[in-house]
Amino acid sequence: MTFFSNLSSLFAQPTKSAKKPKKALKRPRPSRFQGNKNQKPTIPTKKTESTTASNDLVTNHQLQTQAKEIIREAKAKAREIIVEAKSEALSIHAQAEAKSRKLMRSLEEQQRSLDKKLDRIDLRLEQLDQREQKLKDQAKELEEQRLKVKDLRTQLIEKLEEVAGLTREEAKDKLLESIKQKATKEMAQIIKQKEEEAREAADEKAKEIIIEAMKYGATDYVPEYTISVVQLPNEETKGKIIGKSGRNIHAFERVTGVDVDLDASPTEVRLSSFDPVRREIARIALERLIKDGRIQPARIEEVVGKVKKEIDKTIYEAGKKLCHEVGVYNLHPDLVKLLGRFKYRFSYGQNLIAHTLEETRIGMKIASELGLDVETVKLGCLLHDIGKVADEAEGSHVELGVKIAKKYGLPQGVIDAIAQHHEDEPFSGPEQMAVYIADAISGARPGARYENYDEYVARLTKLEEIATKHNEVKQAYAIQAGREIRVLLKPEKTKDEDVVVLSQKIKEEIQNTLTYPGTVTVTVIRETRAKDVAK
Q: Could you read off the pLDDT of 198-216 as tens digits, one per residue?
């Protein structure tokens, strides 16, 4: 850049100075007419002409002097530019030579490295060729030895056949037969021994499994018994509950769906309903109304509505907690809500959440010990009593539970476990039997359930009395804790058609006269027997 800028400045200066002489050479041309029109033109004299000529000579001399100076300066600057250009050219040349030498050294090093690698590759290829040749020689030797061994084996077999008088196949069959007989005898002895050991250890092992399962299933869950009695602070509160013309109590019974009994005691109110959830909603709502003091139809509806929402949330949380306790996740929300109803459901004094939690843990332990499908047993135990909290009322809790399980697409093994946990159907597999055993352990252990003994005996006795009061009945037995009544008819006094008629009559009498949990199955049997003795 320095070189070209110097050149541009060199050629720019003479151009400016060259224009100046042209301006100096211009002389004004005298006008023909100057001054007044009447004035005559001045005629130049000789003196004036000589003066003008001398001025022109001086001007030309100055111009020549300036031109020479400009030329000298231009030459000097040109020499400087040439020197700088040569210096820059030498510097560029030196740098190019340095780079060239560096590249040459790098190329030489790379060439030496490649030569070394090629030498190593050649050496490796030579070694591989030698190894390959060696392997070929060894394979050839092995093939020769194999052929020799084969010939020797053939010779030995021929000699053995000649000595034994048997062919190879005949000798093989005899040897296998001998081994088979010996093995069969030993197997029979082992099987017999193991069977005896199993019989001796079966009872002890079964006890160990059941005890271990019961220990594993022990739960610290404290059931919350639903209280059906509300204490009153004074007798005046009872009047507020009744209201004018009984409007408050009627509104309360209509909204909650429970019956309110005020005659039991002056300071208490009894709430009765077949639905424990309704009874719990009514109890909490009534306690809040008594505490608030504002008991009127509008306030009753408002408080009962709030309590219902709270109970729904409590039920869902209880079901969710139960599922998480046994390790069941991603269950349908409707099933979780149904399980939450166990919180307010009791069977012979045993809270269903406590019973389900205990049974599920026992069933999981039994399934784990016996190598069964733990997931099927777990879900079967968790949902086996789901029919007890179903919205439908028709059918036993087993039938309703099966409907619910099918509705939500549960596996067939779980459906079978629900259907068979009271032996209503034959067991379809060991998992279903494990659910039945776990239910029996949890429900039948001492202290798990309670019922007034006198009422229990009276109910069973009443069942048998209803059946035996018919003249055609020979015997009647209340079995399965009052869930079934089995009736035996006198065959000589009845016909086959009487079986259906009598079962219908007994069923209607039981429905009209008895109060019982769940359902009662009526089974009527008529049979004819003939007996004789050959002498």
A: 777 766 666 666 655 555 5
Q: Give the span between the Cα atoms of 381 and 360, in whole angstroms.
A: 5
Q: Give the predicted TM-score (pTM) of the model.
A: 0.46
Pairing relation of β-strands 259-265 and 268-272?
antiparallel
Candidates 94, 83, 73, 60; CA nearest to 13 is 73
346 token code pair: 């009791």
Token pair of 382, please? Answer: 């968790």
Residues 420-449: pLDDT tens digits?
A: 888 878 888 889 898 888 888 877 665 555
The four Cα atoms 119, 124, 127, 129 give a dihedral, to 10 degrees, of -100
Q: Confirm if 363 and 375 have CB atoms less than 8 A apart.
A: no
Domain 326-450 sits in CATH at: 1.10.3210.10
Q: Say which residues have a Cβ less than 8 Å from residue 322's Cβ, sequence separation at least 6.
A: 339, 340, 342, 353, 356, 357, 382
With contact defined as beta carbons under 8 Å apart, do 296 and 275 qualify? no
Report the CATH number of the 455-525 domain. 3.30.70.1350
CB proximity list for 86: less than 8 A, separation 6 or greater: none
What average pLDDT does the structure give for the chain?
Answer: 79
Is the CB of residue 370 less than 8 Å from the CB of residue 438?
no
pLDDT at 103: 92
